[in-house]
UniProtKB/TrEMBL annotation:
Domain GST C-terminal, chain residue ranges per copy: 94-225
Organism the protein comes from: Dictyostelium purpureum
Superkingdom, taxonomy of origin: Eukaryota
Protein name: Glutathione S-transferase
Pfam families: GST_C, GST_N
Domain GST N-terminal: 4-89
Amino acid sequence: MTDKDYDFYGYHTSNSWKVDIMLKELSIESFNYTEVDIAAGEQFKPDFLKMNPNNKIPVLVDNTISPPLVLFESATILEYLADKYKKLLPGLDRPRERYEVLKWLTFTVASQGPNMGQLLFWKIHNQEKVPAAIEKSQKEIERIYSVLDGVLKDRSYIAGSELSICDISCYGWGMYLKFGIVVDGWEVKYPNFKRWVDLVETRASFQHAVKLADEAIRNWQASKK
Ligand SMILES: N[C@@H](CCC(=O)N[C@@H](CS)C(=O)NCC(=O)O)C(=O)O
């Protein structure tokens, strides 16, 4: 048990920024943040593996219940906090709205996230440029953002008229489009998605994540020089 309500284990990557946004949206300030340096392999340390045997951040521990509750998988963390604070996810008394959010939340972690990871690996991180792999992941990611652009055609937010945890989850990776490394001319190709980006970025919680991402990208670029 620590002195704070939550222990948040993260790193400067998309899945971690989703939790940063959520904590800000819920005005949760009583948490300890521990950076797990995944580039140095800290996610494989026995104490971390006890919390997440899948060796990945983010992890959130809720110390307000006894014994503390350990959560991993960003979608589960968002869903847990939303249910606990009754915000950003309709309750079971509104099944249609609740499962609209959960469907899109799953889409962000099952389709958007892994495919963004693949694309950045083949396009940016892998030394050897393999055209077929780049082309395949580029095509899939463009399809995924077309799907998101399509659903946003007649909605303000991804699951309807209210901000929800699927918007937070989508933005963790979605903000990379702004950094110019994912899809050329994305603002024109996905005008509804662009409008959504502008809308969520009016919120302090999302602006905070952009600041963290900008800093991470600047540090990464400096380390490559
Ligand atoms: N499905 C997981 C993915 C988490 C994930 O991929 N985390 C990455 C950083 S963004 C990580 O910890 N990688 C370390 C590793 O794979 O060893 C979630 O949504 O939480």
